[in-house]
Design brief:
Layout: E1 6-12, E2 15-22, E3 30-31, H1 36-40, E4 60-63, E5 68-71, E6 74-75, H2 76-82, H3 85-94, H4 100-111, H5 120-124, H6 133-147, H7 157-183, H8 196-205, H9 216-228, H10 236-246, H11 251-262, H12 270-281, H13 287-295, H14 316-332, H15 338-352, H16 354-358, H17 365-376, H18 383-403
This protein binds s-citryldethia Coenzyme A.
InterPro entries: Citrate_synth-like_lrg_a-sub, Citrate_synth-like_sm_a-sub, Citrate_synthase, Citrate_synthase_AS, Citrate_synthase_bac-typ, Citrate_synthase_sf, Citrate_synthase_typ-I
Protein name: Citrate synthase
Keywords: Transferase, Tricarboxylic acid cycle
Length: about 425
């Protein structure tokens, strides 16, 4: 953390309190309020944390107004265009781009951790076949602490490293198993001769009755989706992982908590909700009806896949994914799919409607990822599991970073209490 350069003065009831100000390498200054309650006897109030920095970090930086996303300083469009997911994983985990030898060693390590404990197959069989894959994945990832005892001690750096590699390596296998289980097909084992994205596509779509050939354009698009969802500062699910980790919970439990939070339709569940919204709209001529509903303050309906808490002009990930969407749709010859016709028309209407322009509601990453995954043949129920698979490295990197701060402590927010003050119990005959 940079030295204290400046301070702010807070005056309360005639008393003044100096609050140190820290300047970042990028982004807004921060006010250090850690001693505020002890000195002034007041809390700050920020539900939703719109103005609160929960930690310092060197992993990812977002400039919401300029539509900038940097991973360890590298712009997301360069990484999506020139790098690939496992190299981005190395960058997020270790803070620099690997040499060829380091990358080969890392990819070999991840590749050789992709199998899951064979006993886990039985664990899957306890679920109903119609379970949502996210419900299965939350359970299976949390249960990993029951299968990998030798990498749950968070105080042992080597165990933290092994748990990190196991989670990144096994998430595609677990997500593919969840999908196969829900469609009643046999699990497909990972192959060490395939790259990360190709392995995942094969584990999802191969069947024992015939060879499965991975289409390089689809595996490239899959890898790009993984890369674009890898990390995103202190979003809701990452903050959940950090808070769970602050109690000393094991890494598998912390990542399971992040997966549970990501599931919500306002967060990682938006890509599934977006496709379901497009299916509900059904045809281009019904778009005006839904645009009116999105503007109606009395209607809870929102355009899923639009808007963002931080980005207020454009989501740079969406810009990159839009290119991939066009490639995949053309390759699969589905550019005439009625659902995708609704998506493209809705995008144009929202981008030109004064209401959405004024409120900065533009297509976000989930709008385009949903379109690509639908075109690839994934059911909408697999969209968020793919987001969770991609974000695991971000959660793990932020989890690791938290340990690098020797002063880190259990997270324990306070509150503005508006409930009843002290009153005595009344016996039932006196009520
Ligand atoms: C992700 O944080 C991250 O980094 C998340 C993420 C990541 O990588 O981790 O980027 C992934 O979660 C992307 C966002 C996916 N969610 C959706 O697509 C769901 C639809 N979007 C909305 O729920 C909403 O835009 C949020 C939750 C994304 C952002 O909400 P904000 O910034 O808190 O905005 P808000 O709810 O305060 O809304 C501001 C105004 C409101 O109107 P007013 O009260 O000011 O009149 O905009 C309106 C809202 O009604 N609004 C929308 C809208 N989103 C906001 N109106 C219609 N449709 C929408 N989608």
């Amino acid at each position: 953390m940079s030295d204290t350069q400046k301070s702010a003065t807070l005056a309360i009831d005639g008393q003044s309190f100096e609050l140190p100000i820290y300047s970042p390498t990028a982004g807004p200054d921060v006010l250090d309020i850690r001693k505020l309650y002890a000195q002034a006897g007041v809390f700050t109030y920020d539900p939703g944390f719109t103005s609160t920095a929960s930690c310092d970090s060197t992993i990812t930086f977002i400039d919401g107004d300029k539509g900038v996303l940097l991973h360890r300083g590298y712009p997301i469009d360069q990484l999506a265009g020139k790098s690939h997911y496992l190299e981005v994983c190395f960058l997020l985990l270790y803070g620099y781009l690997p040499t060829a030898a380091e990358l080969e060693d890392f990819e070999n390590t991840i590749t050789r951790h992709t199998m899951v404990h064979e006993q886990m197959n039985n664990f899957f069989r306890g679920f109903r076949r119609d379970a949502h894959p996210m419900a299965i994945i939350v359970g299976v990832v949390g249960a990993m602490s029951a299968f990998y005892h030798d990498s749950t001690d968070i105080n042992d750096p080597l165990q933290r490293e092994i748990a990190s590699h196991r989670l990144i390596a096994k998430m595609p296998t677990i997500a593919a198993m969840a999908y196969k289980y829900t469609v009643g097909q046999p699990f497909v084992y990972p192959r060490n001769d395939l790259d990360y994205a190709s392995n995942f596509l094969r584990m999802c779509f191969a069947v024992p009755c015939e060879e499965y050939e991975v289409n390089p354009i689809l595996s490239r698009a899959m890898d790009r989706i993984f890369t674009l969802h890898a990390d995103h500062e202190q979003n809701a699910s990452t903050s959940t992982v950090r808070l769970a980790s602050s109690s000393g919970a094991n890494p598998f439990a912390c990542i399971a908590a992040g997966i549970a939070c990501l599931w919500g339709p306002a967060h990682g569940g938006a890509n599934q909700a977006c496709l379901e919204m497009l299916k509900e709209i059904g045809s281009v001529d019904r778009i005006p009806e839904y645009i009116a509903r999105a503007k109606d303050k009395n209607d809870p309906f929102r355009l899923m896949g639009f808007g963002h808490r931080v980005y207020k002009n454009t989501d740079p990930r969406a810009t990159v994914l839009k290119q991939s969407a066009d490639e995949v749709l053309e390759l699969l010859g589905v550019e005439n799919n009625p659902l995708l016709a609704v998506a493209k028309e809705l995008e144009q209407v929202a981008l030109n409607d004064p209401y959405f322009v004024e409120k900065k509601l533009f297509p976000n990453v989930d709008f385009y990822s949903g379109i690509i995954l639908e075109a690839m043949g994934f059911p909408t129920s697999m969209f968020t599991p793919i987001f969770a698979l991609s974000r695991t490295v971000g959660w793990i990197s932020q989890w690791k970073e938290q340990f690098s701060d020797p002063a880190h402590k259990i997270g324990r927010p306070r509150q503005l209490y508006l409930g009843e003050t002290l009153r005595n119990y009344a016996d039932i005959e006196d009520r």
